[in-house]
Amino acid sequence: MSRNFIGVLMAAVMRPHGRSGIVKLRSRDPLDHPEVHFNLLHDRRDIDQMIEAANLARSVLAHRAFREAVDAVHIDDHGTPADALDDVDTMRAWVSAVGGDYVHASSTCAMGRVVDGNGAVIGYEQLYVCDASVFPSIPDVNTHLPTTMLAERLVARWMANL
User: Fold this and answer.
1) What is the pTM of this model?
2) DSSP assigned state of 34
3) Which residues are marked as active site?
4) Distance (Å, whole) CA 102 – CA 39
5) DSSP-derived secondary structure for 67-98
6) pLDDT at residue 35 is higher than 70
7) Res 40: pLDDT
8) Of residues 99, 141, 24, 42, the one with CA closest to residue 132
């Protein structure tokens, strides 16, 4: 009995340079979800980092151990063969076309620039932010635990000031 398995190896830029994404309100209705545009890979340095990451993944997949275990290697969900991208311009175009996210958005309301140390939005009264957006820089880990820790600290400060 033959079995078909699919494996995934993801490459990612964990410390992007670009900071040009935006969040806009769609309406005055607080239940209406905001419009979010990450504007990923807007900064050429991020494209270059993604190319480096993709090439590293390709080199791992080209190893003899992988070649013996797999029938085919594709570098995207469109079925592009791993060896199809053979020059920097082709890689740059490919990264720009297929690059995506796995959304651990953070650092968009950075503490010290947008909010103070208590999560209060600078220049506004009674407006607070308490999520991963207040991190001064993107964490090296999944955002769940740092966000939970942040929430516990900020809520304790807020409760102490009631």
Assistant:
1) 0.70
2) P
3) 104
4) 14
5) HHH-S--BSSTT--BTTS--SHHHHHHHHHHH
6) yes
7) 83
8) 141
Counting residues of the chain whose pLDDT is more than 70, the rounded percentage is: 98
Residue 115: in which H helix or E strand, if any?
none
Backbone dihedral angles phi then psi of residue 22, each to the nearest 5 degrees = -140, 155
Cβ neighbours of 95 (radius 10 Å) = 22
Mean pLDDT of the chain: 87
What residue has token string 């997949």?
61
For 32, which DSSP code? S
Nearest to 94 by CA among 66, 53, 60: 53
In tens, the pLDDT along 92-145 reads: 999 888 888 776 778 888 899 999 999 999 999 999 999 999 998 888 788 899
Tokens of 132: 């991963």
Residue 149, CA distances (Å) to 19, 30, 95, 131, 137 in order:
25, 26, 34, 10, 16
The residues, ordered by sequence, that sit 6+ positions from 131 with a Cβ below 8 Å of its Cβ are 147, 150, 151
Q: Which residues contact 132 (CB under 8 A, 6 or more apart)?
A: 104, 105, 106, 107, 139, 143, 146, 147, 150
